[in-house]
Write a structure and sequence with these properties.
The chain has one domain: 3-Layer(aba) Sandwich (Carbamate kinase). With 318 residues, the chain is α/β, with parallel strands linked by helices. An eight-stranded mixed β-sheet has the order 3-9-2-1-12-16-17-15, sandwiched between helices. A four-stranded mixed β-sheet has the order 8-4-10-11. The longest helix has 27 residues. α2 packs across α4 and α3 packs across α4. The chain binds adenosine-5'-diphosphate (ADP) and magnesium ion (MG). The site of adenosine-5'-diphosphate has 15 residues, from loops.
Amino acid sequence: MATIDKQEKETLLIALGGNALIRKGQVGSIEEQFENLKVPIRQIASLSRQYKIIITHGNGPQVGNLLLQQESCTEVPRLPLEILVAQTQGQIGYMIESSLDTALMELGVWTKQLLITLISYVVVDEKDPAFQNPTKPIGPVLSREQAKDLPYPTREVPGGLRRLVASPKPVTVVEKREIKSLVDNDFIVICCGGGGIPVIREGRAFHGVDAVIDKDLASAKLAEEIRVDVFLIATDVEGVALGYGGPDQRFLRHMTLAEAAQYEAEGHFPPGSMGPKIEAAVQFIKKRGNRAVITSIGAIEPAVAGTAGTEILVDVKF
Ligand code: ADP
Ligand code: MG
């Protein structure tokens, strides 16, 4: 039966970091973003022969640029953050989808492969303490002069200041059934962009809120809810390191849940960067018990094959 054939392929969820589109130090022109995407997208196209694929992605630099445009223009009404997140799902979804289409064509598998980008909401709890304590840096690094009169909190980073927004925990992905159904029907689905459009429930309805959900945590929630087999987080470092950036920096190939908890307590994983990736991988492993790997954008294929990146393990260490 056709449905049995469909179930033979395992499901792979790939969470692309912001650097898949804009590398650190680049201005982030559309040409640069399309060029940068070629590296992960060619690998994903190739992997689509063996796996059912779901792609999620960050939107930090893009949503920040849209915010900056809002603040520098007084002639049109300002848009709330939820609308800007929706805009980035459209723009980045379009870039990923068209790049993937090209890559699939180059591989000669495009005629068999269906693609779709889905606008996705993610429910958050309006009582989430994150709303009282914004922690998520978004947008470009601002000079002290630029940041002087801004009506929102900022944080010092190397070279200046960045805007901070609340980053509540994802509770559930609203479109999980649609996503599951599309994946079961062999679509490559691009969804939960920028961690999803944050919404709170009001009875049976939803409404958007001013926040940005961490894309790694939203991806882990989706991976759990639609029962993904392999969860891969692709970023701009080769994996998880101990003593990152220090003289004794050491990248790990494997890390057990117990080790992850220990290293976390020792302060190896800062919030807002490696912290949520570890939390996301650990959550997925605890809920699903399958594979979770953190790797670089350039090493997605070897990481899936088990020869690159850092894999989080239940308790066995090799
Ligand atoms: P993304 O856009 O992919 O989510 P982030 O900047 O949020 O990327 O997170 C990746 C960054 O985490 C790396 O570039 C690195 O600077 C930082 N980092 C912090 N601690 C560690 C660690 N222990 N191991 C590896 N990278 C780390
Ligand atoms: Mg990040």
